[in-house]
């Protein structure tokens, strides 16, 4: 069973990016946090969101700010490492909100720094962040929804099926 968990999560995340959905309402941040918290092999945890994004981007197309997106997901997954001492509602919520905020700040900075749409001034950076606010709402909503689904779901499975491990071996 353990050998199927990582491929299943990657395929699920990639498919949710390919299906119609509100912009940025995806499980990618939640998946990074979940992998960081529950995957014993931290290399797999770090690769999980990146591989899912790469798989979906093969169909959606690549763009100039991917390094910022993928880099932020690696940092968010590392934030999930801090949860592996025990996921609570409080620290899970803090990580989910913090991960969403980090994603917003890093990726919008990347749009500003890498692109030519905004002037390379403080005003240009502020304009870039302001333009990203509607997307942040969806990022946060998607992260909260999918984090709840993944973390609560896994804990409920562990509660009722004692043979399910505390961490996922890979």
Mean pLDDT: 90
* Intertermini distance: 10 Å
The radius of gyration computed from the alpha-carbon positions, rounded to a whole number of angstroms, is: 16 Å
Low-confidence regions: none
- How are helices and strands ordered from N to C? HHHHHH
Structural class: mainly alpha
Work out the helicity level. Answer: over 70%
Number of domains: 1
Strand content: under 5%
Number of strands: 0
Anisotropy-based shape:
globular
Report on the biggest sheet.
none
Number of helices: 6
Concise account of the structure shown:
The chain has 170 residues and is mainly α.
Q: What characteristics describe this protein?
A:
0% strand; globular; 170 residues; mainly alpha; single chain
Give an overview in words.
- This protein has helices at residues 2-18, 28-38, 42-60, 66-81, 89-114, 122-160.
- The protein is mostly helical and 170 residues long.
- It has one domain.
- Helix 2 packs across helix 6 (122-160), helix 4 (66-81) runs antiparallel to helix 5 and helix 5 runs antiparallel to helix 6.
- The model has no long low-confidence stretch (mean pLDDT 90).
